[in-house]
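Pinned message: reference record for Prostaglandin reductase 1
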Amino acid sequence: ARKYVFQKQFEGLPKETDLKLVEEELPPIKDGEFLAEAVFLSVDPYMRAYAPQLPLGSTFIGSQVAKVIESKNSSFPVGQYIVGNSFGWRTHTISDGKPTQAGQLTAWLIPDPEGLPLSYSLGVLGMPGNTAYFGFLEICRPKSGETVVVTGAAGAVGSIVGQIAKIKGCTVIGIAGSEEKGKWLVDELKFDRFINYKDKDFEKKLKAATPKGVDCYFDNVGGEISTQIINRMNKFGRISVCGSISGYNDKEKARGMRFWWHPVQNYYFFTFLAGAVQFAVVSQQLKMEGFIVHRWLDRWFEGIKQNKQWIKEGKLKYRESVTEGFDNMFKAFVDMLQGGNTGKAIVKV
Ligand code: NDP
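Predicted structure (tokens):
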């Protein structure tokens, strides 16, 4: 068996030497346990965001699709494909499948994929799909005819949010980092408009693309782009704060409010941050709510079922950026953090 061990805390963009690929000998399985072999592994932004809380020396976090290859647990028979939710970056895992202390399932059988690829369980029919489904519908509560803006629009979560917004009859503006991604969003996913956030005329283009203002904003990125969007919002608009990837690899931004203690410009930074979105939030009476997708664990399979239904009806399109080889996990991870993926980034063992 092989696994990646967290060696050194990330500073800025992760470096290959921060993780170490090691061999390990696994013990024989005991009663109630099973051994699973990884088939697909996921690389996700949360791995970067949560890294500061991970103990050094631990196996690096992540979920995978795996096949049960040995079993002394009748709920996980040999040959079954499962989602190993907290297995981490490892080729082989021994598990008893029991929930963790936080009540999260560590592994579950993949519900009948009905002909769809098993890897979808790491994307549209898994955590990112549910993030889009619940995080958008429950928090933004979109109404037909409204204008929806989504950032990180060509990624795993954002591309699904925009399509669900279209299903709900909204006008959708997607924001992402390349013209090629924009073409995919508009031509294939039928987003109404696309803006590249790297465009120097972003603010002007945002105004032109949202003549009726913005009713719902699904925020995957945070930072200056989000501030500009929030300042375009209509009265009683709703903001679903999903992530802030624009700051994950940036030491200063990631610290957020600690900017307050800047020794010299202390006061300047305080007023800048405090005023960036609060004026719009108050004057337009906006509702801004953060969430973690596990809030909806009790409805987990409802989200998967609905997204699967939409795929089968041709209403939800889905794309993956696949990296081959367990040895390329790190490359796939850093590539994703820098926008190398369109749709869900995964690794095929
Ligand atoms: P994506 O598939 O969207 O991949 C990450 C993307 O982020 C890249 O492709 C890149 O696209 C974009 N990106 C990188 N740097 C920047 C930057 N500086 N500014 C703007 N965009 C940037 O990942 P996911 O769909 O898995 O995750 C999207 C967001 O959702 C993340 O913030 C993540 O943390 C969050 N999330 C939150 C969950 C929750 O429970 N709250 C659950 C799952 C995800 P581009 O080319 O456009 O720059």
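Pinned by admin. Summary line: Residues 44-46, 49, 128, 131, 152, 154-158, 176-178, 181, 197, 220-221, 242-243, 245-246, 291-293, 336-337, 339, 341, 345 surround NDP (CB under 6 Å).
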